[in-house]
Amino acid sequence: MKFMLMMHAPRAGWKDAGIGTWPPADIQAHIAFMMRFHDELKQSGELVDAQGLAGPEEALVVRATAAGAPEVTDGPFAEAKEFLAGFWIVDVETKDQAYAIAARASAAPGKGGGPLNMPIEVRQVMSAPAQEG
Amino acid sequence: MTPVPESLLRELAPQVLGAVVRRYRDFAAAEDAVQEALLAAATQWPRDGLPANPRGWLIHVAARRLTDEIRAEIARRRRQAIVMLEMTPEAAPAPDAVSPTDQDDTLNLLVMCCHPALTRPSAIALTLRAVGGLTTAEIARAFLVPEATMAQRISRAKQAIKASGIPFSRPAPGELNARLDAVLHVLYLIFNEGYASSAGPALQRADLANEAIRLARELHAALPEHAETTGLLALLLLTDARRAARVGPAGELIPLAEQDRRRWDAAAIAEGVGLVSDALPRGAIGPYQLQAAIAAVHDEAATVADTDWPQILALYGLLERMSDNPMITLNRVVAQAMVQGPQAALAALAPLDTKGRLAGHHRLHSVRAHLLEMAGDREAAVEHYRIAAGKTASVPEQRYLLTQAARLATATA
User: Fold this and answer.
1) Which of A107, B154, B209, B277 could make a disulfide contact with B194, Cβ separation 3.0–4.6 Å?
2) Quick one: pLDDT at residue B97?
C-alpha cells in the first residue's frame, strides 16, 4: 500500500526563523540527513517518489473563469499557518511501516543539531479496487 | 556472454536510421523499426556475439521489421487482394562498409528532429531517440518523467513531422542556416539539462551532457566550416571541463570562483580553446563562439584574480548586442563588478528590477546579494540571498543560497 508523507513547515518565521537563519553547519547536517534518508528509502525499495517544492512566496492560485480562461491570483492561503514544503510517496506492507518512516523524517536535525520533531501528515494513496474472483 | 559497448549502438543508430529512411522514405515508421532493431541487438549480441558487420545487421533487421509492418498494413487495407511486396528481406541493403553518406545522414536527421513545427521538448526527445540512439525509457529517466509521458511526446513529434510533409533530405542552403540555429539550440539545451538541471535533486545528469557533446562532435564533423557549430562544441567542452570541480562531496554546488582548478579537465580545455581559436578569425562571429571565448578566458586563468576580467566584460558586451537574453546582462554585470567595483555593478542592476523578464527572478536577487556582499553590506546581502533561496526551483541552488545567507548572518552576529 502506498502512502504520501507530507512535510509541513510553519509559515510564520519561514523567512526570519526558518532554515535560512540556522548556522551553516546545521544546514549542512539537515541536508546530509535528507539525502541519506532518500538513499535509504531507495535502497530498501520503499521509495516511489519524493519532491521538494519551491518556496511559498512563489505560490499562485488558478481558477477557471466563466469562459474557461485561467485567472491567476496570489496564494489566498496567507492566513494558513503552514505550507507544504515537500513530500515522499512510499510503498510499504503495513500502515505501521509508513508511520515508522514518517517518524524518521520528523526527527530530521534542526537548529543546534537536535531533532525537529516536525509534523508529517500521512495519507494513504487511493488505488484501483482489488481484482475479484 | 560477449559485452557489447553501449557506445557502439549509439554511434550506429543515426547511420542505420539514415540508411533505412533513405530507402523507405517514411521517417516515423523507420524510426520505430530502428528502435526495435537496436533493442534486438542489445539482447542478441551479448548472447550470440557481435556480428561481422553490426551496421549491416541492424539495417537488415530494421528493414525486415519495416517490410513486415508494410505487409501487415497492406493486408489490413486490401484483405482480398494478393499482394506481393517487392521489398523482400533479401532485398534489404547488403552489409557493406560505412558509406560516405553517413555524416550527411546525421546532419539530415538532426535537422529533421529539430523541425520548426516541433516544441523544444519534443525536438529534444526525438533527437535523443533518433540520432542519439537512446531508448524511450532512458530519455524518460534523464528528464524525470514517466516513460508513458515520454513515449507520447515522441509519438506526437513524429506525427507532427509526418503532417508537415517535409521530405527526408537536406534543406536548401538558404533554409539550412535557419534550421541549424534550432539544431544548435536543441544540443545546447540537452547539455544544459544534463549539466545544470533546472529542477530536481541531482545537480548533474552526466549522460545527457556527454550525449550533447557527442552529437555536437558529429555535427562538427559534418560541417567543419560552420563557425557556430565549432563554437558550440568548444563551449560544451570548455564548460564540461569544470564538471568534477563543480560539485562538492555532499553534492553541493561550488561556484566558479571557489572551484579547485586543478580538478579541471586540461585535455578538454585544450581541445575547446583550439576549436574556438580556429573559429573566431573566420569572421562569422555568433553567440556560441562568444560564450566559448568567455569560457576559454575563465578556463585559462590559474586563479580568479588572474582572470582577464576586462576581456570577459568586453566579450559580454558584444554578446549582449547579439541577443536579448537578460541572463547575459546579469553575467555582464558580474564581470563589471570585477572590473569597475560593486557599486558600479549595483547601479547597472537597478533598471532590471522594473524592466522585463528578470523582475523578481531569483538570479537577479542572487547576483544582487553577491554584489552587496562585495560592497560590504552584509545585512542586505543576507536578505537577498534568502529571497533568492525562496524563489529558485533548483534544490542544489537553494541549498547553496541558504548556506551563503547562513554564513554571512553568522559572521554578522
Assistant:
1) B209
2) 42
